[in-house]
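Thanks for the sequence, V.! I ran MBL fold metallo-hydrolase right away. Repeating your input here for the record:
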Amino acid sequence: MSIKVKFWGVRGSIPCPGPKTMKYGGNTACIEIRFPEINRLIIIDAGSGLRELGNFMMANDFKNGPINTDIFLTHTHWDHIMGFPFFTPIYVPGSTLRVYGPVSFEGDTLEKVVGGQLTYRYFPVRQAELAAQIEYFDLKEGEIDLGDGITVTAKYLNHPLLCLGYRIAWRGKTVCTAYDTEPFRNVFCTDPEDPSYDEGMASEGELVAQEQNNVLEQFFSGVDLLVHDSQYTQEEYLAKFLGWGHSSFEHAVATAERAGVKALALFHHDPMRSDDQIDSLSKKYCVRAGEGDTEIFFAREGAEREI
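Predicted structure:
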């Protein structure tokens, strides 16, 4: 019994095709999680990588019957939903799609946010014209039973927009996603020389941040595969990107090791990061199977893992 994971998009922010990204890929987030023994498929995120996954499903799955799958969106920033209008199964009669994602703070439903891309203002096809049966589910933290023994647990992450990590479990195997997130940190002033400094608030802020970081580590404790945000080096993060909602390699590696993760996929690559740069970073951060307690590798478009 196994779970097969395939990366169809590994980039953050915006697709970046070209000669400098051919090895690791230029498509934005999309992960296929397949359960071959029970013929089930879960998709995490609908970035630009979803287009090629849809083409693959039509060429391979459709011949065995109508497409029937669950799509879990981590959040609705555009790089995580832009592939949806190009996902061929939504145009095929008989397809059944269940789309899950967090409710945004703006009050719009998930259907309105995702389906809103399918208007004549942005696209030549309207959502009302789609042939597939599509249901939308607004998610909060909690566990979902998908049947056949599959459970999906959702956990809020730390990102400028409400964002969820997912822990997928089936017959003792676990895959977890935690990207578009950065470490929780004290948001109160910690400089005693600053006029706004309050010792009590500074202390409380530090305690809350540490508690939330501990909760997130517990969320992916012991998983077989963790797909974690790692857009920056620690130096880049501290110099320019605090508060942008993304993590450093150093943070991802340290938390995965503390949590007893078996394999860590460094994910959500910066669109400016070239293949050569990632190869260089691999020599510094990656540990292969058998070399340490946590195997560490950079996610690559088209790569597959079986757990």
